[in-house]
Design goal:
Order of helices and strands: HHHHH
Radius of gyration: 28 Å
Helix content: 55-70%
Number of helices: 5
Low-confidence stretches: 118-128
Structural class: mainly alpha
Strand content: under 5%
Distance between the termini: 67 Å
Number of strands: 0
Length: 134
């Protein structure tokens, strides 16, 4: 019985690295991989902001969840790249029309807007498609 236990233990010790290497195939990300991914996303956000002529501060405001150091690094790299290659910044797209209308309404009649929203919700004018059973 002693030799059978030793064989089993030896087999387990030799097979363990193979099983542990399979963890990468399961899609489980390590903390290092998550940090690298977060940094790459931050750099991409920063580069995009610089290319669209946004300031770093505006980029921070638009992307509050992104890592600020990575955003700045991406913004700076893109700034240097654009300067070296004489690339002009592309103006950012205008805000959606709904935001512009909301900003104008907030400035003109903020109290009226709140009361209008309550009455809309109580009237039930929403056009919601309901699913009919067959």
């Amino acid at each position: 019985m002693g030799t059978a236990v030793r064989r089993s233990l030896r087999l387990l010790v030799l097979a363990a690295p193979l099983w542990l290497a399979g963890c990468d195939l399961l899609g489980i990300e390590s903390p290092e991989q998550l940090a690298a991914k977060r940094e790459a996303e931050g750099k991409a956000i920063g580069a995009g902001c610089r290319h669209s002529a946004r300031s770093v501060e505006a980029c921070y405001e638009l992307n509050k969840r992104a890592d600020k150091a990575a955003v700045f690094a991406g913004w700076k790299e893109m700034n240097e790249y654009m300067a070296e290659n004489k690339i002009e910044a592309v103006p950012p797209p205008p805000p959606p029309a709904a935001e512009v209308v909301d900003e104008e309404a907030d400035a003109d009649d903020a109290p009226k807007k709140k009361s209008a929203n309550r009455s809309d919700a109580t009237r039930g004018d929403d056009k919601v498609a309901t699913r009919q059973p067959n």
